Amino acid sequence: MTLTRRAFATTMATALGGSVVRLPRAQPSRPRPSPSQLVWQRDELALFLHFGVNTFTDHEWGDGREDPTVFNPTALDARQWARAGRAAGARALILTAKHHDGFCLWPSRLTTHSVARSPWRGGAGDVVREFTDACRREGLRAGLYLSPWDRNAPVYGDSPRYNDFYCEQLTELLTRYGPIAEVWFDGANGEGPNGRRQEYDWLRVFGLVRRLQPHAVMFSDAGPDVRWCGNEAGAAGDPNWSTMDPAAVAYPGASGDGVITALQHGDPHGSVWRPAETDTSIRPGWFHHPGEDQRVKPVDQLTDIWFTSVGRNSKLLLNVPPTREGVLHATDVARLADLRARLTALFAEDFADGRPVQWRVTGTHSAAAELDLGRTVTVGVSRLEEEVGRGQCVARYAIRGAQDAGEWRDLARGTTVGYRKLDRFEPATVRRVRVEVQDAVAPPRRLRIGLYRGS
Ligand code: FUL
């Protein structure tokens, strides 16, 4: 079936329901998140775990011709992954159940390229089972990545047959392991073992996930629930709207003019709620390579990433890859704990907490909030939040501060707010703070405001 971009987007929205808001004629309403999208966003941080044959061959992309016996973690401990995630403040973990090499971390009945042919646990092991059990024991949500591109499957490129194969693998993953919070679809779509290209049946795939796991969110470039932020460097767009035009990125892996811009920024007038997820790795690669053990991102860089992801209305999916032993490397675990400690210290004292806020509507699409902090303090970081359960609307704002009766001076200026906007600025001594919403796509509602000293 060949569909135009717009027709595909419309058909997909109709087939999936939920995240599309039909605009009533008289009183236009704006898109809002579904309950699952809201849960997803409130998690703020999830860990990504790239693990598989590449961990043992020292590759980033396997070619599907690996000997399955290379997969032999000596001390796999999924509980350690989950504990490290929880200590970092993550509320979900996502595991690469299958990467582009096609090697399955669970005993799929559709292929022999799996843990069942490895010496690990005598061929009776199931990493997906150990992973999902560990997540539940640590109170974390579990998510799975199932690469559409499969360089091992002989039917890859024989489109209808591979679509059946892929849907059957998805069915295994979504029916054997209890609730799955996020299903991650990678946009990479390369050649198959025979050089053929695959046409995916995304409508069928998305419909299957909705049916088997109605509370899961689906991630891909094109959603349908969560979109890619457009890069792997840890920076969501600024501005970053959680609404978008579904026709701008009509299917996973779409390329062409405007795609990256649409992914980075969303669209203030978009008809669907499709917030951006920021995926990046704590190391240069996605898989663990011993040669990169000295190149784990320092805590300053991870903190910067926090500001450009969670602090830009996105969710951070931080990759921390297990080693050949099957555990997270001590350096990475320490770095995660350091990041949490840094964030806890940074946001420990909120000068705005409990202070009365005067909220004034200043125009149809503008408003201002004023706070008296009750004492003179030094502020260097601000936190603004919209109540996104009711949609996103701020398009431009300014934050100003003043000492007692002194003059107002600019602390920060920005565009979108959404779930959370964090700003860092030159520390200033202030007693009064004013947040001006200077433009919005609908009458602005009260913002939540936090003010901190900064580093
Ligand atoms: C990319 C893949 O090709 C990488 O290997 C990695 O899985 C990353 C998250 O997505 O498209």
Can you count the beta strands? 16
Integer count of domains = 2
Radius of gyration: 23 Å
CATH architecture of the largest domain: Alpha-Beta Barrel
What is the class of the largest domain in the CATH system? Alpha Beta
Detail the poorly predicted runs.
Answer: 17-27
Overall body shape: globular
The end-to-end distance, rounded to whole angstroms, is 56 Å
- Classified in CATH, the superfamily of the largest domain is Glycosidases
Count every helix, treating DSSP H or I runs of 4 or more residues as helices: 10
Helix content bin: 10-25%
The ordered H/E elements are: HHEHHEHEHEHEEEHEEHEHEEEEEE
Query: The biggest beta sheet, please?
Result: 8 strands, parallel, barrel
Q: What is the oligomer described by this structure?
A: single chain
> Average pLDDT, to the nearest integer?
94
| CATH topology (level 3) name of the largest domain | TIM Barrel
The portion of residues forming beta strands comes to 15-25%
Question: What structural category arises from helix and sheet content?
Answer: alpha/beta
Bound chemical compounds: beta-L-fucopyranose
Short account of what is shown:
Helix content is 24%, strand content 24%.
Notable traits:
about 450 residues, Jelly Rolls, TIM Barrel, about 25% strand, binds beta-L-fucopyranose, single chain
List the helices and strands and how they pair.
Layout (H helix, E strand, L loop, with lengths): L4 H12 L18 H8 L2 E5 L3 H5 L20 H10 L4 E7 L28 H11 L3 E6 L12 H18 L5 E3 L17 H11 L4 E4 L5 E3 L14 E2 L14 H7 L6 E2 L2 E6 L17 H10 L6 E5 L10 H17 L10 E7 L2 E20 L8 E9 L6 E6 L6 E20 L7 E5 L3
Parallel strand pairs: 1-2, 1-10, 2-3, 3-4, 4-5, 5-6, 6-9, 9-10
Antiparallel strand pairs: 7-8, 11-12, 12-15, 12-16, 13-14, 13-15
Helix pairs in contact: 1-7, 4-5, 6-7, 9-10
This protein binds beta-L-fucopyranose.
Beta-L-fucopyranose binds next to loops.
